[in-house]
Amino acid sequence: MDPQNPDTPELTVGELIDQLSALDRSATVRLAVNPFFPMAHRVAGVVGARDEKGMPLVFLADGDQLGHVPPDVAVRLTWQEPTVAPPRGRRRAARPTGQ
Predict the structure, then answer these.
(1) What is the pLDDT of residue 44?
(2) Alpha helices, H only, 7-87
């Protein structure tokens, strides 16, 4: 699933369970939202529903905002490109005034 491509099929509950099954069961769950200004949110709840065609849906409710999504997570979500800090050159020493 590509979160940037709206033509990509949506994630199913089965696929989500498969992906979550590979992770630490004691890990805290967070939502990563807004790829242009990535923020982390608590999951406030899980609700089953039906769409306008009667197909089953599951909503993960957005809770409190907790801060920024870590840069490595934004990269793995393909929201940002990996970045490397530019090399630092030697700093020049300041000259005393009057010379």
Answers:
(1) 92
(2) 13-21, 71-76
